[in-house]
Amino acid sequence: MNYAIAEELSIRKIEDTIFVLDRKNSMMHTFNDTGAFLWEGIQQNTPVERLCEMLTDGFELSSELARSDVAEFLNNLEKQHLISITM
Amino acid sequence: MVVSLGTLHLCLKGIEALPLSAELKNALRSIDQLTEVTEAYSVHMCLPSNDEFQPVRQSTEINGGESCDSCGLMGAYFEFSVDWPERKIIAILRPQSNDIDQIFLKCMNAILSLCFVQHQGFAIHAACVYLHNHAVLVAGRSGAGKSTLAARLSPPGQILDDDFSIIYRDNGRFWITGSPFGKDGRIHPEKSARFPLETIFFTRKAIHVGSLPLSIAQAYHNLAQHVFAFWALPRISSRLLDNIHLLCTKVPMYILHADSTESDCSYVSLVFKGIE
């Protein structure tokens, strides 16, 4: 699975929160610390498997739960048109 | 015809042809010192039939208002385009509106807020109340009671505007001013007075009165929802985000729990704490 970040975004990190402004839809999305952790990985083009490992290590999750959380997060980002996923 | 707002030059081309009331036209002709904007822009306003201002590089719609019956544009009955590199702002009034004066003044407010982006500022949907030459802002969602709350703060405070305020930075601090272009379709020069901005409150209806300080990230989250935004324009939206962040680091912000319809007015002292 690969993904690409949408073009019309303005991104700011303030304290531990990431704010993503979707200029096309005038929508502001906010990510908490876990979401910010994953989003920064996505910005660096980190492979999905590595995102799962990072979440497992960083937040002491089981690998199954980490995979499920990453998949859900990516799906939500795609639904909000912040990323596009290609299989 | 060129009308000067300080050094903001409004080129009201063909103003005589615009379907504005005679009263508003006279008021516009008399404008000469309403703001302290220091960047020069040229603003052209014309009717749709005028093709002179067709080439534009970016466009957006104005926030607020209803959709146009004829063209379906959300936001207002006018088109609003910005040629950023040329600093040219183009507004095309659509004559279908029944109250073109108000539409025209809404458009002027949008132009005004755009100009203040250059001054580390922006316009915000919030009531401004001042006391002893210091101002606080009361922001809230539509129906949250900010206008009612602002009215309950006066006296001891005085209301500069109950809905639309402009924040900008000058001499190292943030100031608040109102817009002279009123939603009542009239021009109010007295609203262009400015006051140092002390605090911003975001209202929440609650049984018990209280205030909750916001972290910078929380303040940013709340503030961004009330900014009169031009998110579709990349360079402007980027500056807006930076301006909002800067403000959040300089001005304290709180959630204000209050029921403005009840007799408990202890929130008045909370709001003016540090000013009185």
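qc> The interface with chain A takes residues 215-217, 220-221, 224-225, 229, 231-234, 237-238, 241, 245, 248 of chain B (CB under 8 Å).
qc> done
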